[in-house]
Amino acid sequence: MQMYAYIEYITIIISYSLLLICDLMQSLLQILLLCILSCILIFNGCYADSHGEKLSKSEFDVCVQECGNQYEECSKAIRELWKNFQKNKKQIMKVMNSCCLRGQSDHSQPSTLSFATCVRDRCGAELWGCNIKKRHSGFLTDREIEYIKQKELRTKKKIQQ
Predict the structure, then answer these.
(1) Which residue spans traverse the membrane (predicted)?
(2) Are 136 and 32 in contact (CB under 8 A)?
(3) What is the pLDDT of residues 10-65, one digit of tens each?
(4) Which candidate, 92, 82, 76, places its Cα nearest to that of 23?
(5) Choice among 10-14, 124-128, 130-134 with the minimum mean pLDDT
């Protein structure tokens, strides 16, 4: 096994999306929520701590994908809450952050606890994170249009002050 004198940085981005259909009055209205899990993993080599061996790039990618699948399973518990994002935003973020980062600094926690513990213990990653964004496509409901207008008004008022 060759050891290199320089530090190798690799960025991995994983994206997931959820498709939710809105049950409001119009059957043609759909809300597409795109939940992007952007995980930037910067590490010094690809060492798997639990095995004491260096992972190849392809092995590391597979490992991160498996941890991403674990994150997706964890987030399924709140799938219905996405239908009313504004009302449930705090609860959604609490669960998503838990699925992503719970136990990240406690090395006694199992690798099945969160995405962070999984990539740390199974893949040998030294840095991790999740970025969750709500994206929209398709028609907007009246409620969404009103929310956007109110948000723009608040922003304009802040700028004018």
Answers:
(1) 5-21, 27-47
(2) yes
(3) 222 222 222 233 332 233 223 322 222 333 333 333 444 444 567 888 998 899 99
(4) 82
(5) 10-14
- Angle, vertex CA 118, rays to CA 112 and CA 121, nearest 5: 115
- The residue with tokens 């080599």 is 45
Q: Which distant-in-sequence residues (6+ apart) come within 8 Å of 116 by Cβ?
A: 100, 101, 102, 103, 104, 128
Smallest CA-to-CA distance from 129 within 7, 65, 37, 35 is with 37
- The predicted model scores a pTM of 0.52
Q: Confidence band (pLDDT; 50, 70, 90) for 131?
A: low
Name which of 95, 64, 90, 65 is nearest 79 in CA terms.
Answer: 95
Q: Who contacts 158 (Cβ-Cβ below 8 Å, separation ≥6)?
A: none
Kindly report the number of other CB atoms within 10 A of residue 67's CB atom.
27
* Better pLDDT: 124 or 53: 124
Judged by DSSP in three states, 33 sits in strand
Question: So where are the chain's domains?
Answer: 18-160
- Pair of tokens at residue 3: 């050891």
Pairing of strands 47-48, 31-33: unpaired
